[in-house]
Amino acid sequence: xxxxxxxxxxxxxxxxxxxxxxxxxxxxxxxxxxxxxxxxxxxxxxxxxxxxxxxxxxxxxxxxxxxxxxxxxxxxxxxxxxxxxxxxxxxxxxxxxxxxxxxxxxxxxxxxxxxxxxxxxxxxxxxxxxxxxxxxxxxxxxxxxxxxxxxxxxxxxxxxxxxxxxxxxxxxxxxxxxxxxxxxxxxxxxxxxxxxxxxxxxxxxxxxxxxxxxxxxxxxxxxxxxxxxxxxxxxxxxxxxxx
Length: 243
Description:
Radius of gyration: 18 Å
Largest sheet: 7 strands, mixed
């Protein structure tokens, strides 16, 4: 329980004390948007690093060499925990936003930081708004900002993945960017498996080789969600044996 209180207390304190930083970042963005992207990424990564330490996450990152040195991508991962965002964002080398549920947009200060790092808010109940979010994601990728999605749509509670939603992959298809598959193993052991307590846990995050759509067969491109899910599941099953 101590870890939960310490981590949640830090998050609240950070959000409140970062109000002056948000003003500074707004000013920077008026003159140098790229500098704002880099500084916001550094600040959020620092905050996430503190959260991971307080929660007791011992994370092994595998396959970092599979992230290309240049360009923007669509990162795709399985989803078991809120810490999936915290732990993956720590190792992104360049500005990257997440596709988040629209409810997150109503949380003061947190939503501002999310927008500062190019997060997209997806209303799953409103098809028209969902399409708009996907179109914004395509534009972000074309402008050099990578996007990370968890196409199961919600957190899975078992080792069996939920079906990957095919619509999530339109950003890659329309922007013609590579897909970087991410396998996240044992992140739910930090908190979700025994809420509200947080426990020290070993998490493995593995980045697979980039998936270039033009190199896939017509059948694999037709069922892209199932193909990417299978690639992630292979990494997940391998790493599950290590935990």
